[in-house]
Structure formats: structure tokens, C-alpha cells
């Protein structure tokens, strides 16, 4: 034996193995990662891969058959609900485990465990918002109800059965790349997933921004910049609807005018940007009187962040008592948007303000007692340990008052509050509720009464539920458990030293605006105001107006409608805001002295048909011009404003200039002259030239290239994302596709005796980036095409649509 | 002859071990095989190196072609390896180096 060479070469070998198995020397454990039998190669799914498999799982009570069609959509046939939801959980995990865990970690304020310190601010914010506290309270309700408890328990067991079957080589790709392992699923995680949707859809408020605006502007300017009701409004429930006298009489605090509405209160702010969420959606249903078949057609396209793997996963769920098809959430049992043998339903976001802040007066910095109703009241504390990858644990202490958690305090301003004051958040999503029951019951609904009973469980996030059934009914209800507010309540930060500013009651279910088989033969919603100003409760402000206007205009004029017409409508790129704004801008742009190319650019706008078509150049000119116009109108007023402030909505500007040719804010207050619409429109156009010419040079003047829609992988890693999609539309078009937000699931259901349904989402059924089913729907979606949705019958086992078969037995 | 036998035995045992054991058992396999089939250090190194270069190269090539290089064309960019071919060669080289040095060490066990 040659000792020295043996030792040296052994050390070299061991060193190599350590270097290649860890991240001590290399940024990635390349040996582990590239081993063909363990690493990422194992995630390279063969293009001939068979998904047929037999599973023996003792948790099952009977047999379950899963038929996978050519798009990898599973059609699950089970004997019992328990087995059904077990297999739903198993399949969600099999195809989407990584995203389920990432999203629920993020919801729980645990992202730092996976990605390290960069997520600490997010985690603190979510802990302080009380996300886990909210999920725990909703879990209690879910587990109190036998139906949802059974579904959650079975679902969790199914996810965990899949996790237990994982080996190093079968781990999803992202776990290998980032270097961690999945933990067990639990019912709390399903609750967290649903709470995350609440945060996404009902976690938006402008209370600090509006408080600052109220302080900064004169009362007159403020009411012009932030009007609470828009004249051009076409509300969800049409104008002229008669509302009963409200059953709740709200007591406006006696001092509301002096210490709240007119009080000048500037929250000292830092300078961080607030993410713009822009979640919207469309849904509508037309009655048989307007369709070619004589049966209702229901359509829905929820607009959400466009991500890979997709938020949605298509499934059919079947038992002897149940047959439902639609888009499911990997993370929770049941179908969320879909149809069964009797009816179909869909949602758009309600968007009302259900998150308010109260300023808390603590006795001292220990926060142990706060002043409430003329006494010192004891605070409760929740201690939050945030574990951070490769770093020491961060301990956060969150005080809870009668209102809710003290989200912003001396240690945390969230980039919008103050570092010297305390603000408790009152959020509707903290209240007890069981939203899952809504979907469990909708999946089983037969008629209008079932629909009403199902959606009565939907409290937060409030949604506009559209409904249609084979009996010919159509309906839409602006459903949610909404706080009954007096005018202005919760627009600004409220005093928290007594109960007078608290929410006094919830609007009763019977007083929720709704429509059932209306004479106009259609119902629709696109996130606009639920009702006009005759509705007796305060509805707040900031609803998007324009998609609703164009949808109603189109539906009004459509007859003999076919599903194909509905596809054209859902992918309609018409920009109704541009239709209203362009003529006025064009009339006011002074062409004298414009250079040749400037005139050419203007000609593009003149020739434009207001369609945000993918190849439209006029759409790009309008977009840049409108942005510059808006800046020019308001920049002078906002020059010295606090950084955390709300800019006026686009509808406010458009209404302002349409209704008043000498709109007050057109004048640039930093110059002695009084500027007119012509001055501002002309300068705005000139200011747009540089950006437009740059786009021309770079070949991105066409709208789809300029807008540059992308579907991001949840890590935002570009190689796993889909970039530069050739798709038109935009914020104010029915096809509301923005750069990274848009129709996340398009569905059309014609409720003929044999249901005819179509759908598509920008993703693919398999979350594995190494699979050909990872993003195979995206091009189809971008082109505005649909897949027929196949509601498989139990005796169609041998249909040629069935590609693979999974058998589950106990 | 010894060389070819060593290469084959190392490759086959590595393949078998990989089904159940961690990736680095290729080092153990190469070490044991070259300590049992004595060759000079250079030949031993080369037999470990060749065995794993061929095994990992062939496996990853085979997997990736069946996958139409879908996974590799994405992950190669994340790992800053440019394209699937580089990623396959890198895979083969990593296996080869680990097994090569382990095989070298193995060759010194019985050498006088």
C-alpha cells in the first residue's frame, strides 16, 4: 500500500464529492444536481411518457379511476367524496406540489425559509397582517362543518400520500434547484391558500395614501381629484334599480367632520413603491332569449397575475352524487370556477374596501396597554419567529387590539405608514368564515336556490357570482359579507381610541345588490361599482369603469349568440377609454411645427380604430400619449406631495376633461400662464415622441411588442418563463391582458341539454418545467383559441380521448 | 483487457448503485473496483474516468433526447451552461472526475 498517494488521492476525491454535493464552494451542488439518476435529468419527462399507473393506497375506502385526456386533464371517477378529494389532493401534489408549498409558505410569512433574507419584509408584512391568525380562524370554521372537514381531511391525506412517495430523484425540479424538501401538507395550509386569495383580492386599500392626499390638497381639490361617484358609470346592477330602505341605521360619529373627514393629518412616510395589483375580471351570462340555441350561455375570465405553474388546474370530479368540471386551485379541494350537469358559475372580484386602519394610543413603548373607551385596555401579543435560510431567526412581536393586529408600528412601516405611530388593521378576512363551503355547494348546485345558499357562505374575498342553469335562469349577485359603512368611513385612517369609528354591522344578505332573470336578458360584471348612488350603503371609490361599459354595450346589441360569438367577445381588444379620450386629444394637438416623423406618429393615432390589436401601432401611440398627458396634468400638483399618495384614477382625468374644457388641473401651477387643453395635449404629444421613436427604432412600436406580455415562473427565472407573447388587449379592453396580468382562465359554458363548454388558461397541466405539458396552452391562449371542455361520462372509458388511465385501490 | 473490464464493472455497478443510493456512491464503486482489479495509477484513473464519462454522458444524452431537450434547454441557461450539449458534457465530466480520482485512490490500496 502506498500510504501517501492513497491519502492524497482520497482527500482529493472526498473534496470533490463535498464540493459537488454542497454549496460550500460552488453556487450549486453540481454533482447532486446533474447526476442523471438523481438530479434534474430525472425531471426531463420523456415526450412519449406514459401517465398510466396503478397506485395502492390504504387510505382509500374503494376504487378510484382517473382518465387523463390528451391535454393531461384528469377525469376522476370515485365512489365517495372522501376518495374523490383524496385523489384530487394526490393529483394536485403530483403535478403541482412545489407551487402549492411556495404559495402557502408565502401566505404564512415563511418565504424567508426558502429564499432567505430578501423575503423578510414580505414575511413580516404577512405576519403583521395576521395571515396565519386569519387562516386559523377560518380553519376552525372549516373543521366545524362536517362536509368541508371531510373534504379537507381527505385532500390533505392525498397530498401527503404523494409527498410520502417522493424520492430524491422524483422531487420536483424547483426543490432540486433551490435545494430543499417539501414538508407535510395540512388543513391549515389549505386555509392559508384560500386566505392568500383573500389577500390577493381583498387585501388592497389606499387608506394611508388617501389620508396623505386629504392632508395635502384643499378640500375643493381633493373632492375633484378623488370623486366618490362617477357620472359615466354603468354599474353591475343597472342604474334605476329601486333599493329598499336599509335595515341598518348607521350612527355617524358626532365628531366625524371635525376629527376625521376634515382633519388635516399627515402620516409621515417613507419612499417605497406600493405594488400595483390591478386584478380585475369579467363575467356575464345571457338568457336563452339572446342565444341561438335558446339556452343560457355563461362566460367568465378572472384576470390575475400570469404565472407558471398556473394558479389553475383543470379537472373533472365525479361520484355517483356529483359531476363537476372546471378550474381548481392546487392547494384546496373542489372546483372553483366551472359547471356541473345542471348549472355553471363564475366570479369577478368585488373590490370593495374591507381593510381599514385605526390609530392606536399605547400607554408606553411596551405596547402592553392601549387607550380604548376611556380606559387602559390590555394588549394581546403574538410572537412571530421568522426562520431565515442561512441566517439567524428573526423575532417579531405583534400587538393585537380590539380592531386587529397592530400592523404598522415603530419597528415596521411597510413603506407606507409612519415610524412614530401605531396603526391597527381591521380586515374582514380575519372574521370567521368558511369560503370553501361556497364551492363545495356550488359544485353540487342544481337550481337558483342552491346557488343562493352556496354563495351565502362567501364572505371574503367578496365576489360577483354569475350563475346560469339549464332551467333557463341567469343571475348575478355582488356577494360578500360587506361592512355597512357611513359615507367616507374607512377612506382614511380612523381614530382608535373608542368604538365610535368601528364597523357597526354587516350588510344583511337580503340587501346585497343582485339581478335574477332581468328583462334585459343578460347580467354582467367587470369589477365596476356594484350599484348606483341610490344604493343606501357607502360603496367607496376606485372601481374600474370601462370594461363594464363595453361589455354591456356589446351584450345589449348581440342576439342569436353562439359560443363562438362569446369567444370573440372575451378576446375583444376594443379600448373604450381610448374611444372617449382620443377625439378630444386629437382636436387639441397643435400640428404646427411638427417634424415629419412626428406627423407620421400622429397619423397612426388618427387612423386608429381603438382596437388594441397585437399589431396595432395606433394603440401604442395612444398608450404613451395618455400616460404623458396624465403626467403633465397632475405632476405639477403632486410635485411637493408626500411620496405615499394616491394618484387620481384614469376615469377621473377622463371625466374631468370631457365634462370641463377648462378642467382646473390642466393649468401648470408652476408657470405664470394659464395652460389650456391645447397647450397640455400638444406638449404631451411632444413629450411622447422620444419614447415612440425609440420603440420604432427597436422594432417594438406594434402594441403586443410594446406591451410585451409574459407569463413568469414563480421564481421569475426567465428560462422557466414564457416571454414576448403576441397578444393584444390591455387594462380597459375586455381582453384585459397587461404585461404580466390578464385572463387567467377563460371559460364559456352553453347550457344546452348536453353542455357545450370551452376553456383555456395560459399554462399547462404539468407544473414540471421539463414536461411538454408545462406551458403548452400558452400559444393557444395568446391566439385567442379555446379547447372544448370534455365532461366525460362514466361509460366513455374507451373513448379515444382517453390517453392514460390511473387506477387507485386500497 | 483489465482496463475494459474495469470500465465495464465500474459503469454497471454505478448504474445499479444509483438506483438506490446517493450519487456519490460512484466514488465508492470506482475505489473498490480499482482496488480489486490492480492496474497502474494512470490506467486506474482512466478506467474510472472513462466509465463515468460514458455512463453519465450516455444516460443524460438518452434522457434529454427523449425529452426533446425541453428541460435541459431551460436549466442549462439557469446553470449558465448555455445549451443542452454543454450541460450533457458537464454532467459526463463531473461523473468522470469524481470516479477518476476515486479510482486513482483505489489503485494505491494494493500497490507496493
How would you describe the overall organization of this protein?
- Chain A has 810 residues and is an alpha+beta fold.
- Chain A has a domain at 576-707: Penicillin amidase (Acylase) alpha subunit, N-terminal domain (Orthogonal Bundle), CATH 1.10.1400.
- Chain A is built from 23 helices and 29 strands.
- An eleven-stranded mixed beta sheet of chain A has the order 1-29-2-3-7-8-9-10-18-19-21, covered by helices on one side.
- The longest helix of chain A is centred in the N-terminal third of the chain and has 27 residues, at 81-107.
- Helices cover 80% and strands 0% of the residues of chain B.
- The mean pLDDT of chain B is 95.
- Chain B is elongated, with a radius of gyration of 15 Å.
- Chain B is built from five helices and no strands.
- The longest helix of chain B has 26 residues, at 41-66.
- Chain B has one domain (2-107).
- Chain B is mainly alpha-helical and 112 residues long.
- In chain B, helix 3 runs antiparallel to helix 5.
- Chain A binds chain B through residues 1-2, 5-6, 9-10, 12-13, 16-17, 20-21, 28, 30-48, 168, 173, 177, 717-720, 769-772, 774, and chain B through 15, 18-19, 22-24, 27, 31, 41, 55-56, 59-60, 63-64, 66-68, 70-75, 77-79, 87, 90-91, 94-95, 97-98, 101-102, 104-105, 108-112.
Amino acid at each position: 500500500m502506498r500510504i501517501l498517494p492513497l491519502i492524497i488521492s482520497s482527500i482529493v476525491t472526498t473534496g470533490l464529492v463535498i464540493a459537488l454535493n454542497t454549496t460550500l464552494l460552488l453556487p450549486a451542488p453540481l454533482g447532486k444536481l446533474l447526476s442523471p439518476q438523481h438530479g434534474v435529468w430525472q425531471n426531463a419527462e420523456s415526450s412519449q411518457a406514459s401517465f398510466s399507473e396503478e397506485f395502492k393506497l390504504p387510505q382509500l375506502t374503494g376504487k378510484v379511476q382517473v382518465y387523463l385526456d390528451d391535454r393531461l386533464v384528469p377525469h376522476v371517477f370515485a365512489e365517495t367524496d372522501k376518495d374523490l378529494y383524496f385523489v384530487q389532493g394526490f393529483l394536485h401534489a403530483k403535478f403541482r406540489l412545489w407551487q402549492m408549498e411556495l404559495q402557502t409558505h408565502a401566505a404564512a410569512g415563511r418565504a424567508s425559509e426558502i429564499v432567505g433574507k430578501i423575503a423578510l419584509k414580505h414575511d413580516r408584512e404577512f405576519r403583521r397582517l395576521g395571515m396565519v391568525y386569519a387562516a386559523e380562524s377560518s380553519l376552525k370554521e372549516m373543521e366545524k362543518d362536517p362536509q368541508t372537514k371531510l373534504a379537507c381531511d381527505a385532500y390533505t391525506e392525498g397530498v401527503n400520500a404523494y409527498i410520502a412517495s417522493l424520492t430524491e430523484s422524483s422531487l420536483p425540479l424547483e426543490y432540486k434547484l433551490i435545494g430543499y424538501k417539501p414538508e407535510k401538507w395540512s388543513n391549515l395550509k389549505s386555509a392559508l391558500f384560500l386566505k392568500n386569495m383573500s389577500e390577493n383580492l381583498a387585501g388592497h386599500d389606499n387608506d394611508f395614501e388617501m389620508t396623505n392626499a386629504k392632508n395635502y390638497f384643499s378640500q375643493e381639490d381633493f373632492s375633484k381629484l378623488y370623486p366618490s361617484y362617477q357620472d359615466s358609470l354603468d354599474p353591475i346592477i343597472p342604474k334605476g334599480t329601486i333599493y329598499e330602505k336599509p335595515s341598518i341605521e348607521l350612527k355617524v360619529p358626532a365628531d366625524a367632520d371635525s376629527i376625521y373627514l376634515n382633519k388635516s393629518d399627515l402620516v409621515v412616510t417613507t419612499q417605497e413603491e406600493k405594488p400595483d395589483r390591478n386584478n380585475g375580471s369579467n363575467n356575464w351570462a345571457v338568457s336563452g332569449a339572446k342565444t341561438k340555441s335558446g339556452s343560457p350561455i355563461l362566460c367568465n375570465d378572472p384576470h390575475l397575475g400570469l404565472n407558471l405553474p398556473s394558479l389553475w388546474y383543470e379537472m373533472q370530479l365525479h361520484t355517483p352524487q356529483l359531476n363537476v368540471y372546471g378550474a381548481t386551485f392546487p392547494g384546496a379541494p373542489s372546483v372553483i370556477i366551472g359547471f356541473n350537469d345542471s348549472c355553471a358559475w363564475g366570479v369577478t372580484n368585488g373590490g370593495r374596501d374591507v381593510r381599514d386602519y385605526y390609530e392606536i394610543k399605547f400607554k408606553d413603548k411596551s405596547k402592553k396597554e392601549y387607550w380604548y373607551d376611556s380606559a387602559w385596555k390590555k394588549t394581546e401579543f403574538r410572537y412571530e419567529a421568522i426562520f431565515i435560510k442561512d441566517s439567524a431567526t428573526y423575532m417579531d412581536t405583534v400587538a393585537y387590539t380590539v380592531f386587529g393586529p397592530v400592523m404598522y408600528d415603530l419597528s415596521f412601516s411597510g413603506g407606507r405608514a409612519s415610524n412614530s405611530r401605531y396603526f391597527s388593521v381591521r380586515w374582514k378576512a380575519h372574521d370567521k368564515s368558511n369560503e370553501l363551503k361556497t364551492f363545495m355547494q356550488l359544485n353540487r348546485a342544481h337550481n337558483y336556490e342552491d346557488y343562493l345558499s352556496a354563495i351565502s357562505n362567501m364572505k371574503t374575498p367578496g365576489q360577483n357570482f354569475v350563475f346560469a342553469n339549464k332551467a333557463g335562469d341567469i343571475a348575478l349577485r355582488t356577494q360578500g359579507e360587506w361592512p355597512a359603512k357611513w359615507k367616507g368611513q374607512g377612506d382614511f385612517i380612523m381614530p382608535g381610541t373608542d368604538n365610535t369609528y368601528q364597523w357597526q354591522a354587516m350588510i344583511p344578505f337580503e340587501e346585497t345588490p343582485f339581478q335574477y332573470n332581468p328583462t334585459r336578458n343578460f347580467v354582467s360584471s367587470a369589477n365596476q361599482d356594484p350599484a348606483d348612488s341610490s344604493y343606501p350603503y357607502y360603496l367607496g371609490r376606485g372601481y374600474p369603469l370601462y370594461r363594464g361599459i363595453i361589455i354591456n354595450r356589446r351584450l345589449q346589441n348581440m342576439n342569436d349568440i353562439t359560443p363562438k360569438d362569446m369567444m370573440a367577445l372575451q378576446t375583444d381588444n376594443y379600448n373604450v377609454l381610448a374611444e372617449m379620450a382620443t377625439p378630444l386629444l386629437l382636436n387639441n394637438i397643435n400640428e404646427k411645427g411638427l417634424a415629419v416623423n412626428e406627423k407620421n406618429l400622429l397619423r397612426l393615432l388618427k387612423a386608429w380604430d381603438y382596437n388594441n390589436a397585437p399589431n396595432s401601432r395606433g394603440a401604442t401611440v395612444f398608450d404613451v400619449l395618455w400616460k404623458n398627458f396624465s403626467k403633465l396634468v397632475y405632476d405639477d400638483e403632486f410635485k411637493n406631495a408626500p411620496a405615499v399618495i394616491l394618484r387620481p384614477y384614469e376615469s377621473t382625468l377622463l371625466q374631468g376633461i370631457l365634462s370641463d374644457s377648462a378642467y382646473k388641473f390642466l393649468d401648470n401651477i408652476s408657470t405664470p400662464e394659464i395652460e389650456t387643453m391645447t397647450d397640455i395635449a400638444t406638449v404631451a404629444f411632444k413629450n411622447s415622441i422620444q419614447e415612440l421613436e425609440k420603440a420604432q427604432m427597436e422594432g417594438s412600436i406594434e402594441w403586443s411588442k410594446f406591451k410585451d406580455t409574459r407569463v413568469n415562473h414563480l421564481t421569475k427565472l426567465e428560462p422557466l418563463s414564457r416571454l414576448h407573447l403576441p397578444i393584444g388587449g390591455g387594462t380597459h379592453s375586455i381582453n384585459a391582458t397587461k404585461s404580466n396580468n390578464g385572463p387567467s382562465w377563460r371559460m364559456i359554458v352553453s347550457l344546452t341539454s348536453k353542455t357545450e363548454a370551452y376553456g383555456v388558461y395560459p399554462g399547462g397541466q404539468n407544473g414540471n418545467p421539463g414536461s411538454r405539458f408545462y406551458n403548452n396552452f400558452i400559444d393557444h391562449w395568446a391566439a385567442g383559441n379555446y379547447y372544448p371542455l370534455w365532461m366525460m361520462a362514466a361509460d366513455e372509458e374507451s373513448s379515444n380521448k382517453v390517453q392514460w388511465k390511473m387506477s387507485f385501490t386500497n | 483487457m483489465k482496463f475494459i473490464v474495469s470500465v465495464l464493472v465500474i459503469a454497471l455497478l454505478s448504474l445499479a448503485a444509483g438506483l438506490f443510493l446517493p450519487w456519490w456512491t460512484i466514488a465508492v464503486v470506482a475505489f473498490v473496483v480499482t482496488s480489486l482489479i490492480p492496474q497502474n495509477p494512470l490506467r486506474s484513473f482512466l478506467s474510472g474516468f472513462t466509465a463515468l464519462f460514458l455512463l453519465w454522458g450516455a444516460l443524460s444524452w438518452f434522457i434529454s433526447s427523449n425529452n426533446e431537450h425541453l428541460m435541459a434547454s431551460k436549466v442549462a441557461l439557469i446553470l449558465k451552461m448555455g445549451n443542452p450539449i454543454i450541460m450533457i458534457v458537464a454532467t459526463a465530466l463531473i461523473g468522470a472526475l469524481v470516479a477518476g480520482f476515486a479510482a486513482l485512490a483505489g489503485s494505491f490500496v494494493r500497490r507496493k
